[in-house]
Specification:
The chain is built from twelve helices and 14 strands. The chain is of the alpha+beta class and about 375 residues long. The strands form four sheets. Strands 1-3-2-14-13-12-11 form a seven-stranded antiparallel sheet. Strands 4-6-5 form a three-stranded antiparallel sheet. Strands 7-8 form a two-stranded antiparallel ribbon. It starts with a strand and ends with a helix.
Length: about 375
């Protein structure tokens, strides 16, 4: 093993550490982290490699990077916490909380439609520049005025960047706080999790740049729903290096953390509500995530997928676990989180060398499979 792997790993999962090291040795990974919690306890927390292509800066214990759409799972936690407190109803109309949203035929769009990419708002008709994504009021005003691209609730179509604004505006209307502030105060801080949606100046020095893949994340007919989704709004991966991107709140895409913080944050969901001494929500709320609400071929991702509440669900088409009550999501470039309520585990992979994919890749898949082999 030529690359040094730091952190700790229960010897039961030594094979996972070996697979992780192999990816760094082969060059598949540049710098990365992997973490596993079981029963609300951290049993694997490893990292290794470098933060830069010149390999002069090591990936350290407190290194953080942009995890793209793995961020979405943090917005789901915010919604689940509000629902558990009786402040948000997934069956209610979005316009009940956000009256302006009713414009252009959206009066009956449900909250769960937004959670499950079924609101018909996967992209925007009004062209926006990447920098416009840093302007919260502009983005949510445009989305409130937008006409759905398909009948809400009839199908899912991945809301790649818009979903975070939609969930985030609900959080703001209910609590008076931005999603990033609510998440930090009510979830990240109680769980002692090193994750930010809107990075403060004090933490900027710890961020490693992602090593981008060229171009948009998918090649599609520009007139198709998929093509329109991935081009407007769109921000090239290189923009994730900018201070503007890092400071903004883009809850579908610009969360910064590492595998430890991602796995720690999702551990309460894995343990049906409680982990690390924190009761985040009730068992009923936690298990509600695993009930399928919509499925079929996603209009944007163009592959079969089932959604519970926000998260994708384990299925024959997407067999990520031998267990039934399992949900997951991943980010552009390769970061991932998987939550298994049957095994009470949360497992995350976060890296800086991007793979040309939206929902995880073979690196994270092989690590998860090695973990299950060890169980």
């Amino acid at each position: 093993m030529s690359v040094e792997i730091a952190g700790f790993c229960d010897e039961k999962f030594a094979n996972v550490r070996d697979v992780f090291a192999g990816h760094l040795d082969s060059g598949e990974d540049l710098g990365a982290s992997f973490a596993l919690t079981i029963g609300g306890e951290m049993v694997v927390d490893i990292w290794g490699g470098h933060l830069d292509e010149a390999r002069t800066q090591p990936w350290c214990e407190d290194s953080i990077v942009n995890v793209y759409s793995t961020t979405k799972t943090m917005s789901f936690l915010c919604a689940l916490v509000l629902a558990d407190r009786g402040l948000l109803d997934f069956e209610a109309n979005v316009a009940d909380y956000w009256p302006e949203f009713a414009a252009n035929g959206k009066a009956s769009v449900k909250v769960w439609h937004i959670m499950d990419h079924a609101a018909g708002l996967s992209g925007m008709d009004t062209e926006v520049a990447p920098e416009d994504m840093y302007d919260w009021d502009k983005m949510v005003t445009l989305l409130a005025a937008q006409k759905p691209w398909w009948e809400p609730g009839s199908a899912s179509g991945y809301h790649a960047l818009t979903q975070g604004y939609l969930i985030g505006e609900l959080v703001r209307r209910i609590t008076g706080q931005t999603l990033g502030a609510f998440f930090r105060q009510e979830i990240a801080r109680p769980l002692d999790a090193d994750f930010f949606i809107g990075v403060p100046d004090s933490e900027m020095h710890r961020i490693g740049n992602l090593v981008p893949v060229p171009g948009p994340p998918a090649e599609n007919d520009p007139e198709s729903i998929a093509g329109r989704t991935f081009t407007n709004p769109f921000s090239p991966a290189i923009n994730s290096w900018s201070e503007g991107w890092r400071k903004a709140e883009i809850p579908a895409a610009n969360g910064h953390g590492n595998a430890r913080s991602v796995a720690r944050l999702q551990a309460p969901l894995a343990c049906k509500g409680r982990a690390f001494g924190v009761q985040l929500f009730s068992e009923a709320t936690a298990t509600s995530v695993m009930r399928e609400r919509i499925g079929g071929t996603d209009l944007v991702l163009q592959q079969p997928i089932k959604f519970g509440l926000g998260f994708g669900l384990n299925s024959e088409q997407m067999p990520l676990s031998p267990n039934k009550n399992v949900c997951y999501w991943g980010g552009w470039g390769g970061s991932s989180i998987l939550v298994d309520q049957d095994a009470q585990l949360s497992v995350s992979f976060v890296m800086n060398k991007m793979f040309d994919g939206l929902m995880g890749d073979l690196r994270s898949f092989s690590l998860v499979q090695a973990m299950y082999k060890s169980l």
